[in-house]
Amino acid sequence: MRNGLLEFVLDGDAAAGNGALSTAAGPRFAWAADGRARTLQRTWLDTFDWRLYRAGLTLEQVSSRGRTELTLTGRDGAVLASAQLPPLQRDGSGRSRWPSLLNALPAGPLTEQLEPVVGVRALAPVARAVSRISNQRVLNGDDKTVARVATDTMSVTFPAAAAVQPRLSVWPLRGYQAQATRLNQLLAAAPGVAESSQSALEAALAAAGRRAGDYSGKIDVRLTAAMPAGDAMAAVLTALLDTLAANVSGTVRDVDTEFLHDLRVAVRRTRSALKLAGDGLPPGLARRFAPEFRWLGALTTPTRDLDVYLLDYPAMAAGLVAATPQELQPFRDYLVRQRAGARRELTRGLRSARFARLTGQWREALAGVPGARGRRLSAARLAATQIARAHQRVISAGGTITDTSPAQHLHDLRKRCKELRYLLEIFGSLYDPAELWQAVRELKDLQNCLGEFQDSEVQRAEIRTFAAQMMTQRMAPAPTLLAMGEIAAGLALRQRRARTQFGDRFRAFASPASQAKIRALTGAAAS
Amino acid sequence: MKVFATYNIKGGVGKTSAAVNLAYLAARDGYRVLLWDLDPQGAATFLLRVRPRVKGGGKALIKGTRPLDDAIKATDFDNLDLLPADFTYRNLDLMLDSAKRPTRRLGSLLAPLRAEYDVIFLDCPPSISLLSESVLRAADMLLVPVIPTTLSVNTLDQLTGFLVGLDGHRPGVLAFFSMTDQRKRLHREISQQLPADRSDFAATAIPALSVIEQMSVHRAPVTASAPGSVAARRYRELWQEARERSGLSPAPG
Fold it and tell me: Is the CA virtual torsion B237, B243, B244, B246 positive or negative?
């Protein structure tokens, strides 16, 4: 039941809804038609990684009789916020086009509620349907309405054309919950009527052969400790390839910056897996593909670096003390121009025969791994060995860092941390989630500190390069350069702060208790 | 949130008809509206087809052992809820008398509903009592139906005189002629003269029409059951005046 609303599915057509209602109402209730039937054009929206669905939220655009409204509902079906969208003009302008970033929607309570969940992701249709809704009022002995019943005959048009079993919803009226409960009981017992366990969106997706929440940037593979290491690696790498492939279209179309981010993470995880756990694969496989994935990673870097700059830009501009955001604007224009160029390179690469060959051959090679001859090693053993090695590498590299160590040493340590983290993610399904979380906690803190240090270092170096390029291209008025100088100073401060935190973070990570957690984690699964 | 109270010391002057119709019109405009039928006779409750019963009676509401929220019933009309009458409301004066700060009690009971409703109508029983004083304190605007007779106008003067003597918050007053009969010379003269002389009178008058009396047969506001009727038109005009004079902000959405 959602917000006191109970939904049923009907075996027959919409007329069966009236029949069921008539039977269920019996002598206790009367029922009457409530207005004329309406046709609704429905579009459900979510981010590519289902952030709304995972947060228990549903965002639906409904168009009917010239009005278009966006409504956000919670898990219990309660309306949290809504906004009317301007009507669609003849030339196609006026109404929000999907996919759309939040800043393209009318500002108000709806976008305020969406922002913390959706973040930088675009909203795009996950399902579309046409619903024919007819309403009935259920009346008591005084001819007073005690509940409203809507019969919804829905045809899904996207992601695939499909018919959905008619749905019947009972809306209790305030102060008449007991009567609605009784009506629900009568309906549940009526022939051809069954209580629905799905929301309208879930029903529409199921009819079209899709499942809500079917994409996640996380590695969603269930490994078992005893399975051959090669099979485990192939399963993980295939999942990473699926993630990579799923994000290509959104990256090429530039829907939002997270497509490229997820694509890059899939590439980095793949590269780490090949480097650190390639032993689990048939001989030569890792060596054959590693250079191509290095190429792919490098292809994505310039655009992502500029994305990070542009995502941070509002905060950077807002944080200016001496300069004004207007003075910094040419820098933003420059970043946007640079990004356009970087994206052209990226898109060319993702559309190239080289990329198609890489992904095609990689998938084929992975499909041949299960059953191939190689080292007889279990997944748990491979994981334990590689995680222990990676862990030791972090401890060793971190232990040599002093207050005077060059930035490069911290950068190298960050890479080692990432490798360890990826291994823990790749083999994560072998371990108890609570223990894994405990083991990763200090590593995460250390990574955050190193990330802050390194990103500030890189951005500071880049801002100098950008300034030089802007001057060459006559795009840098003096006030803009001064504003950029202020940004660089801010980055230096951030970097210094991160550097002072490093000692504590590393000591926490390298503490005997923290090390014991990693050993216990891998030891238990490998034994 | 704005609180309107249909109020008159006299009975049978069209308070309930006005409350039900204006509440319906406000709801139709998109405001979230609650009508509280404070009259133990329960006429507004009857017109909206709700049973005149509140669990625990008026005592539970006044004492706060049962929140108003719990007793509210949806009507057949979108955005219009009703807090029904209960026969125990005949003793509301006594109940208020034993409450702390009785003249402010109604206002404090309504306060939690501020987030839920844009407009509240209080349909008051005819009297001048502790309950009336609590209503006067809680209301932003009194809607006072007046039959165009000398005695009725005198009663209005009594009320406005009483308001002048009130300390602190005083509601605005919008009087309007009700049950006017243009065949009667006195009605014609008074209803033409007074709105011109007094600023607290609405330009709209509600005529005595059988379609309004028939509300008790149809059990629905005349503005809903006969929207094309003269009566419905007059109530719409009256609502327009009340809305403008009260400074009610436009309906959300």
Answer: positive
Q: Determine contact, residues A228/A378, Cβ cutoff 8 Å.
A: yes
The answer to whether the bond into A479 is cis (omega within 30° of 0) is: no
If one counts every other C-beta atom within 10 angstroms of the C-beta of residue B118, the result is 21
The verdict on a CB contact (< 8 Å) between A175 and B219 is: no
**Coil, strand or helix: which one is A124?**
strand
> Does residue A144 belong to the interface with chain B, where contact is any CB pair within 8 Å?
yes
Inter-CA distances, B28 with A293, A413, B33, B43, Å = 63, 67, 9, 21
Give CA–CA dist A325/A486, Å, rounded: 11
Q: Give the containing element (helix H, strand E) for A305.
A: helix A285-318
Q: Touching check for B51 and chain A: CB below 8 Å? A: yes
Q: What's the pLDDT score for residue A248?
A: 98
A145 → closest Cβ in B72, B76, B253: B76
To the nearest whole Å, the CA of A30 is away from the closest chain B CA by: 14
Q: What is the ipTM of this complex?
A: 0.85
Q: Quick check: B74 contacting A, CB < 8 Å?
A: yes
- Provide the 10 A C-beta neighbour count for residue A502: 20
DSSP-based three-state secondary structure for A175: coil
**pLDDT tens for each residue of A491-525:** 999 999 999 999 999 999 999 999 998 888 877 55
Which chain A residues contact residue B219 at CB under 8 A? 142-143
Cβ atoms of A305 and A462 within 8 Å: the answer is yes
3-state class (DSSP) for residue A35: coil
- For the residues of B54-88, what is the DSSP string, one character each? -TTHHHHHHHTSS-HHHH-EE-SSTTEEEE---GG
Query: In this complex, is the C-beta atom of B72 within 8 Å of any C-beta atom belonging to chain A?
Result: yes
Res A374: pLDDT: 61
**Interface contact flag, A143 B81, Cβ < 8 Å:** no
d(Cα B138, Cα B61) in Å, to the nearest integer?
Answer: 16
Determine which helix (DSSP H) or strand (DSSP E) holds A139, and give its type and residue range: strand A124-139
Each residue of B44-66: pLDDT tens digit?
Answer: 999 999 999 999 998 999 888 88
Tokens (6 digits) for B159: 């009320």
Position A374, amino acid:
G
Residue of B nearest to A145 (CA): B76
Pick from B51, B74, B219: which is nearest to A173 by CB? B74
Q: Is B218 on the interface with A (CB under 8 A)?
A: no
Q: Which residues of B touch A176 (CB under 8 A)?
A: 73-74
Q: How many angstroms separate the Cα of A361 from the Cα of each of A49, A268, A358, A369?
A: 27, 18, 5, 13
How far A71 CA lies from chain B's nearest CA (Å)?
13
Distance, in Å, from the CA atom of B21 to the CA atom of A90, rounded to the nearest integer, reads 41
- Partner-chain contact A175 B71, CB within 8 Å: yes
A50 in contact with chain B, both atoms CB, cutoff 8 A: no
Q: Which positions of chain A have pLDDT values less than 70? A: 1-5, 13-18, 87-96, 372-375, 524-527
Q: Does A173 touch chain B (CB under 8 A)?
A: yes
CA distances for B215 relative to A328, A344, A446, B14, B238, angstroms = 69, 72, 75, 12, 18
pLDDT digits (tens, 9 = 90+) for B154-168: 989 989 998 988 888
